[in-house]
Amino acid sequence: MTKTLAPGKPYTEPASRQELLAAKNRRLGLLIFQVSWMMTFICLSVVNWQLRWQYADWPPSEITLNRIFPSIATLLLLASLLLFRSARGTLTAVDARVSFRRRWWLGIALGFLFVTIMAVEFFRAPMLVGTTYRDVFRVMTGFHLAHALVIGWLAIRVLRNPSPEDGWAIEAAIKLWDFVFIAWLIFYAVLYWI
Amino acid sequence: MATASLPIRQEPRISAGLPRVGEFMRWSVDHKIIGVQYMVVALSFFFIGGILAMLMRWELLTPDVDFFGDGAVYNSAMTMHGTIMIFLWVIPMIGAMGNYVVPLQIGARDMAFPWLNAFAFWIIPPAGILMLLGWLVGPAEAGWTSYPPLSLLGHDGQLLWAVSLHLLGISSILGAINFIVTILNMRPEGMPLFRMPLLCWAVLATALIIVLATPFLAGALTLLILDMVAGTSFFIAAQGGDVLLWQNVFWFYSHPAVYIMVLPSMGIISEVLSVHSRKPVFGYRMIALSSMSIALVGFTVWAHHMFTSLTPELRIPFMITSMIIAVPTGIKIFSWLATIWGGKIHFTSAMNFALGFLSLFLIGGLTGVIVGSVPVDIHLHDTYFVVSHFHFTLYGGGVMGLFAGVYHWWPKITGRMLNEGLGRWHFWLTFIGFLWTFLPQQIAGMMGMPRRVATYDPSLLIYNQLSSLGAFVLGASALFFFYNLGWSLARGRVAGGNPWRALTLEWATTSPPPPLNFYEDPVPYPNPYGYGSDAAREYLDEQQRRFPAALEAPTDEGSTSASLATQPAGTSAGSSAGTSAGQQQ
């Protein structure tokens, strides 16, 4: 924007203050994004509820819901989240990058298992072709899968150069994975239990 | 209150210089550039939306379809008018005001996430163009509310409409995240939340609504798009879907969106009324908290748009919440009246529009209470009474507030004053044209004229002709506005740092401000609205010495720009506000 600047430089803050502020901003920004985007998941849950009101049987009586695989998937997702968190704990110790990588990879592997199971649910699952039940089931699981894949990819990218000094990438990946887990808990409850 | 003052012994500064035009045409992360970009885009779409409104009123001069030749064309004009005015004029204009003014008001150097800020803006022009491109493939015709099944029967333009709206929603969420973080984290020392300027409170409340409600629009539009392209049937009743599902989810976003559109204007009004009547804001805390409670209660009223299709036992609770939301609004109205009461009112254009807001929005609010009651609404539902009501809130409220904001902050943005004479013409034509347009619509509505149709019963002819004539006056008023903007850029008097002698921080720097906004660590005046005290007068006098409207003798090369050399000393047209500035306080 500079063309003609009045005498004297524009005021700049000390670098340390700026960095602290930037870190504070990133944390709050991510938190608000999480809360905001969680509303889309809540929106789809509300859609599910409203659609089922007009049906006497929901899910349709032809379908027997298999709760075992989704429950296993949920546990896997929880385990991967805990692994990510514990990996972050090891990174703060002196030179624990090997341990970090091991746990982080394991977390990603478990996350991948979750994605696989839910992808099978998406394609196979309680399907009656052309029913609203199938539509809403697929939209919800598909929407969640898309988020899990994108955020999982971000978690893989974190492995490029993990260091305790640059903790934000790891912290953000973990918080986004928290988001994937909480969003899934809502859908898991709505799709399989309520 | 006498503790804060500007650092003295600094050489006076006039202007940091306006950026070149090219800087506004490309990617920039400076919040001031982005604010102007928002404003230019929004004003362009305001012009397009306004033309559509004129065409519609031309059609409605007669009871039959003649001008458009086909009712479907009228439907598309009506759809695009509503969508453009809401999503491409009022909401981006809030981005403009918020982006330009909020960081300055809280003494920040930029928004919290400058890159994200630019990204949020650059989604808007392509999304707007996408929506306009609908005309090439068969435009959207289902109204801005896009109710299925109508919206599922339409042309491809309906799909473009939905995709475009999806993009605009994402832009507005990203912008809102930025506003919340900036306002909560980036205030300077000495500015706790309850000493923050009221515009920041209003933008904060708006941003909270956006982040919580707009995801519902995203959800609803995703399902609508899937119904259009993927063969699902969420909204197709014949295939197991539910048409009311759309209404519920859409209004869960769109009713709070009404407050998204009017809350920032309420913030602008709070600033303008106090500054231009030289009095502290009455009930600062109540105005701030009522913004928050409007945001909160706004989430509980959505079904009043569906009284006619709602199960009867649900009508009463939604009627009650709709009445309750009038309470915080009433608190604001009374606080504003008490603010100007006994004040030294300067009838600047900004003040005129703020006072216009007060009277017109009051009618908008009161007609809202009328249609908020179930028995009356059953009669008035989908009539021109509703059209009139929401134009009173969105134009009489939202847009009047935005105009007040433009007149108030234009000197800060460009460094030049607007022409007060043209501003007065703009205001009075707007005010009279507005009432002329929308009061006859109220009567036509009560007599049963349905909205969204190009034909009507010949007995309603007189009301429609009156309304159309008023609309043409209203349309003409905008021309004065656009001309005024151009006039100011070419010939406007140099504003100086603080032409209105206002106490908030955006005025404690040059107009326009330098790239990082301030020349030293900004120290807020303890009470942003503490007008009328000796301390405030001293503070403002000192500010005027540092950022004068014109230098008597240039101190050095850097502090005088070419524009100053030719500057007459506050005698040109439109200087009434500026010349009286010295007498204010």
In short:
Chain A has 5 helices and no strands.
By DSSP (H or I, 4+ residues per run), the number of helices of chain A equals 5
Main sheet specs of chain A: none
Number of domains of chain B: 2
First and last CA, distance of chain A: 56 Å
Question: Roughly what percent helix of chain A?
Answer: over 70%
Q: Structural class of the secondary elements of chain A?
A: mainly alpha
Major sheet of chain B: none
Q: Most extensive interface, residues per chain?
A: A-B, 40 and 65 residues
User: Nearest-angstrom radius of gyration of chain A?
Assistant: 22 Å
CATH class of the largest domain in chain B: Mainly Alpha
Shape of chain A: elongated
Q: What's the tally of helices of chain B?
A: 19
Question: What separation lies between the terminal Cα atoms of chain B?
Answer: 16 Å
Task: Please describe the structure with a list of short key phrases separated by commas or semicolons.
heterodimer, A: mainly alpha, Four Helix Bundle (Hemerythrin (Met), subunit A), elongated, disordered N terminus, B: 585 residues, mainly alpha, Cytochrome C Oxidase, Chain A, 2 domains, disordered C terminus
Report on this structure.
The complex is a heterodimer of chains A (194) and B (585). Chain A has 194 residues and is an all-alpha fold. Helix content of chain A is 75%, strand content 0%. Chain A has one domain: Cytochrome c oxidase, subunit III, four-helix bundle (Four Helix Bundle (Hemerythrin (Met), subunit A), Up-down Bundle). In chain A, helix 1 packs antiparallel against helix 4, helix 2 packs antiparallel against helix 3 and helix 3 packs antiparallel against helix 4. The longest helix of chain A is centred in the first third of the chain and has 39 residues. Chain A is elongated and about 60 Å long. Chain B is mainly α and 585 residues long. Chain B folds into 2 domains: 468 residues, Cytochrome c oxidase-like, subunit I domain (Cytochrome C Oxidase, Chain A, Up-down Bundle), CATH 1.20.210.10; 77 residues, no CATH class. Chain B contains 19 helices and no strands. The C terminus of chain B is likely disordered. The chains are: A mainly alpha (194), B mainly alpha (585). At the A-B interface, helix 1 and helix 4 of A face helix 6, helix 7 and helix 8 of B.
